[in-house]
TrEMBL record:
Transcription regulator PadR N-terminal domain span: 16-91
Descriptive protein name: Transcriptional regulator PadR-like family protein
Pfam families in alphabetical order: PadR (PF03551)
PANTHER family attached to this UniProt entry: PADR-FAMILY TRANSCRIPTIONAL REGULATOR, TRANSCRIPTIONAL REGULATOR RV3488
Species of origin: Ohtaekwangia koreensis
Lineage: Bacteria, Pseudomonadati, Bacteroidota, Cytophagia, Cytophagales
InterPro entries, A to Z: Metal_resp_DNA-bind_regulator, Tscrpt_reg_PadR_N, WH-like_DNA-bd_sf, WH_DNA-bd_sf
């Protein structure tokens, strides 16, 4: 059975991939956007290992693209969300919003429409 729960870091990386779109979703760019969005640095090794794990779970797919001259013509591995990955993200969001809605200090402050 495929594990469909996401850790926080996995979830954030998947969201960043969705935000960046399919042209700019290689590991170094994902790490840069992680720092921009969270104000925390992340090692490229942590990004690579997490992307590999998410791809093995079927949440991401990747393809290689020719490198540009600005990158020394190095090949890039571009990541995108699969249908399963999008479904898992949606389920994670719905679960967390459901919990936040039950928290007395915030109940009634969320609109799910």
């Amino acid at each position: 059975m495929i594990e469909t729960r996401l850790g926080d870091f996995e979830e954030v990386l998947m969201l960043i991939i969705g935000i960046l779109g399919e042209e700019d979703t290689y590991a170094f760019r994902i790490a840069q956007e992680f720092k921009t969005q969270t104000n925390r640095a992340v090692s490229i090794g942590a990004v690579h290992s997490t992307l590999d794990r998410l791809e093995n779970k079927g949440f991401l797919k990747s393809q290689t693209r020719e490198g540009t001259s600005e990158r020394g013509a190095r090949v890039k591995r571009i990541y995108s969300l699969t249908a399963l990955g999008k479904r898992v993200l949606k389920e994670s969001m719905e679960f967390k919003l459901g919990l936040w809605k039950q928290y007395p200090a915030f109940s009634g402050k969320f609109n799910m429409s």
